[in-house]
Amino acid sequence: MNLILLRPWDLGLAALLVLLLAWLSWRLHLGVEKRVLIAAARSTVQLMLLGLVLGSLFATTHPWLIGALAVVMLSVAGWEVRARQKRRYRGFWGYGIGALSMFLSSFSITVLALTVIIRVEPWYQPQYLIPLLGMLLGNTMTGVAVALDNLTRQASDGRALIEARLLLGARWDEAIGEMRRDALRSGLIPIVNAMATAGLVSLPGMMTGQILAGSPPLEAAKYQLLIMFLIAGGTGLGSLTAVWIGSRRLFDERERLRLDRLGQG
Q: Which stretch is the leader sequence (predicted)?
């Protein structure tokens, strides 16, 4: 099956739906019309630019250029995690916890998938590396952001409980253990829901894209399964790392609760 190419007019028709959504928001006083339009404009510019950049990368397969794009993707993802926190860590940690967690989880799992599972030669081929890393980073970013936000909000609301446990002789990780588990659970909810409903309620993006491009549905399903398992592992590892570093950062070396290390979002 040949790929049907989209014309600007086709995208323009689809964009009318976004304008309709913004108009409805304005009429119903929802207050999100500006955010909807900005998000649509951002995605248009970002995806068009990425399409141009990937066209050049696919032609050259230059590892330094691919590495630079991966660093840019990680940097933006780290910034987005920081921006989604209601109570952010002050200083470097506000950005560093999310970026480090995503680097450890998404990059390691991407390299593992390319070298051991898919066995691409060379492993940094941009046709495989960039889409895989992008899907892992995007989903891990959501999990890490939700988990960290949940952790800091619970620590702020439960300050008296944590300090009471410390006074009774609990260690820092015991005093905040229940909140850490809740934060981790909240970070895993999106990917657990996605796996539980895939095929019954929703058709994930990668599978849909492959089918539209003409791939056999069964092969598209196999690739989608692979991606979902990798995303689940990346989200879990990233959320676990972020919650551990984030909760440790809430205590000093004398195991005193340090909520002054959090600012307002």
A: none
Residue 148 structure tokens: 């960290």
- Residue-level pLDDT at 55: 82
Token readout for 236 is: 């879990």
pLDDT (average), residues 165-191: 93
Residue reference for tokens 């991407």:
110
Please name the residue ranges forming H helices in the chain: 8-27, 33-60, 63-83, 93-102, 108-112, 126-157, 159-167, 172-175, 177-197, 205-212, 217-249
Q: Which two tokens stand for residue 86?
A: 């209601």
| Three-class SS state of 168 | coil
Instruction: Find where tokens 């592992």 sit.
Output: 233
pLDDT bin (cut points 50, 70, 90) of residue 159 is very high
74 Cβ neighbours under 8 A, 6+ residues apart: 99, 102, 103, 106, 107, 137
pLDDT band, very low/low/confident/very high, at 265 (cuts 50, 70, 90) = low
Q: CB atoms < 10 A from the CB of 187, how many?
A: 27
Distance CA 230, CA 109 (A): 7
55 beta partners: none
The tokens for 196 are: 């539980």
As a whole number of angstroms, the distance between CA 154 and CA 182 comes to 9
The pTM score is 0.84
